[in-house]
Amino acid sequence: MGIIVQKFGGTSVATPEGREHLVQKVTKAAENASVVVVVSAMGRCPAPYATDTLLGLVPCEGSADARELDAIAACGEIISAVVVTVALRKAGLNAESLTGAQAGIITDDCHGQARILHIDTKRLKNNIEAGKISVVAGFQGVNSKGDVTTLGRGGSDTTAAALGAALGADLVEIYTDVQGVMSADPSIVPEARWQDRMTYTEVIEMANLGAKVVHLQAVEIAMHSRIPLAIRSTFSDEPGTLITDLAGAGAPFAPPKPVTAVATTAGRAQVVVPAHDLGVFSAMAQAGVSVDMINVFPDRAAFIVAMQDLPVVKRVLDELGHEAKIVEGCAKVSIVGEGMRGIPGIMAKLAEALARAGVDILQTSDSHYSISCLVPENELETAARALHAQFGLGGM
Ligand code: ADP
Ligand code: ASP
Ligand code: MG
Questions:
Q1: pTM above 0.85?
Q2: Could you tell me the distance, in angstroms and rounded to a whole number, from the CA of residue 84 to the centre of ligand 1?
């Protein structure tokens, strides 16, 4: 019998109705496979056990508190694992809740952004052999000191993919509140369409550019382990999106579409420093600030940072004595597609759509599979919708 890992997100476990659907999905999967369940914390803030609610109980800043923040954040998933285990048992299934540590998830010491180093699968395998469903608290592990760590926001997906890889699972299913991976975030672009198949590469690019439907590292782990990853709705029986490599998509010679999705990231600020001084980048790195959309010219360097890092960024720039120009309230809108490489005219179409919609482009960057534009945050929806329409993503 094969192994399936099923992960249920925050909205899926938040209500009795969601948990009823969860029980149905697990019961059905358990008919033909050994099932391991991974859960997120219940609901979103202000729900009492949501991650942000728990973090809000200990308002603090700085790395000195990172260990304590991880310890409290991890409680949300543990509470959820117990609630779900009891619901499964009530439905007649043999289930046991496990914290990340009990499930054998060993991480590095990087609190808040820990990486999984190793999974000791003994307990999980014993449960599988005993016909017992492990319900694992997502988003967490334990470091070599025995301290609780968390895997970064949205990290329960990564717990599921990592357990799938460690157990040699046949499939990892991510159950959430949307029908699958869509051509844009449906809360921003209502015309967004569900995609039945996508490649790991496309979804990695989307996640990297802000589509939070699945955690970036989860897709990377699935890709490296060659495990199919399905993104499905907890609340329907639709097939969702199956993410595999291109060959697995059954069309090895069909050219990939130039543009398959629009991704967005809000809450960014643009920083322009007048003289090209690479010292600014090492100073940002030392302060733990991640920079993005880096453009270096002979007379200036421009980059973007997360708005929440702005106080640190301003302090670093002051210390360097830089007269920087900072534009707050920006957002990044990107088009993504594995087939855009080498196709002429994609940038022209993008620029035309944004100009027609009256959206200012503050900066751009591109990769093999994407083109990103920095725009004023209050124009993000307009920009995303204009690009979605321009590349025909809603009407196929
Ligand atoms: P969960 O708690 O189930 O992990 P998340 O909130 O982390 O759920 O992720 C699901 C959300 O991701 C959706 O509600 C949707 O608003 C957002 N999202 C962003 N981009 C996309 C996309 N391209 N396709 C689908 N959903 C997306
Ligand atoms: N509960 C965690 C978060 O809100 C992890 C997750 O949902 O995947 O980030
Ligand atoms: Mg999520």
A1: yes
A2: 21
